[in-house]
Specification:
single chain, alpha/beta, Rossmann fold, seven-stranded mixed sheet, 9 helices, globular
């Protein structure tokens, strides 16, 4: 597969975009930038008010609500009912619908853009998920996928917590440790959802090739900052550190960056 060069992206500061008003991500450099990647790719493919958007694995709605604030008609689904109930309670937009259900409860072929952000690493049968989406999506639609670097330093150090989350007592231990470190998961209310897949850049490219998905564009973001934000997000840090780390990552090989965002077509 021919891979285009990564596209440039400006660092998004707190309060830097109006859509940040509708997401808990506004205080997280990693999540702000991830959201910016998704919105940039979405804007390049679909005009607000002129297409339908589907988000699969939407969690508590921190991606779907900012997108809805931009005027897009969006449906968001998740298999975790407490997350969906929380998202519905927070929803301010008539153009946004939250559905409790799996990917089988929606038809990706009805949408002009499909968003799968930080999902594949949680799904044991991720190939089935990608196959279903790729097999049903329209030829002119776009699939936006974001995935953390499974062999980056942050993911490697998180492996023990993922192992603990396989058991109820382990979930309680992880929750206790997070309370000490003063960290929180902003993406979901599901505490029993560890990462089970650890992707490399090359492995993702091969996955896309297997299902005839062409990379239209992609981003690579951050290097060391996600390590601090994951473990010590409420502690003080040098001014400008996340922005500087992001800017450095824009000159690094994609394979060593902390996460990737891809825009794909059939």
């Amino acid at each position: 597969m021919q891979i285009p060069p990564p596209i440039s992206l400006d660092y998004v500061r707190e309060g830097g975009e109006s859509y940040l008003e509708y997401t808990e991500f506004k205080n997280s450099a990693v999540h702000r930038v991830r959201l910016a990647c998704i919105i940039q790719m979405l804007r390049q493919a679909v005009m607000p008010g002129q297409g339908r958007i589907l988000e699969i694995g939407c969690g508590v709605g921190n991606i779907a609500m900012p997108i809805a604030s931009l005027g897009y008609q969006i449906t968001a689904c998740d298999i975790h009912e407490p997350s969906i109930l929380m998202a519905r309670n927070r929803n301010l937009f008539s153009n946004l619908q939250f559905i409790h259900g799996s990917i089988e409860s929606v038809n990706p072929g009805e949408y002009d853009a499909i968003i799968l952000t930080e999902v594949l690493e949680h799904v044991n049968k991720y190939r089935n998920m990608v196959s279903l989406i790729a097999g049903s999506m329209k030829s002119n639609s776009i699939l936006i996928i974001t995935v953390p670097n499974g062999w980056g330093i942050t993911e490697i150090l998180c492996r023990p917590s993922y192992a603990l989350k396989k058991w109820p007592i382990g979930v309680a231990v992880v929750k206790f440790i997070k309370s000490i470190l003063k960290t929180a998961d902003l993406t979901t209310a599901n505490l029993c959802s560890p990462h089970v897949n650890f992707f490399t850049f090359r492995r993702l490219i091969k996955l896309f090739e297997d299902y005839n998905l062409i990379i239209v564009s992609f981003h690579r973001c951050f290097f060391l900052w996600p390590l601090w934000e994951t473990f010590l997000s409420k502690r003080s840090y040098p001014n400008g550190w996340p922005e500087n780390d992001f800017k450095r990552s824009q000159n690094l090989p994609p394979s060593v960056c902390a996460f990737w965002a891809f825009a794909l077509q059939k």
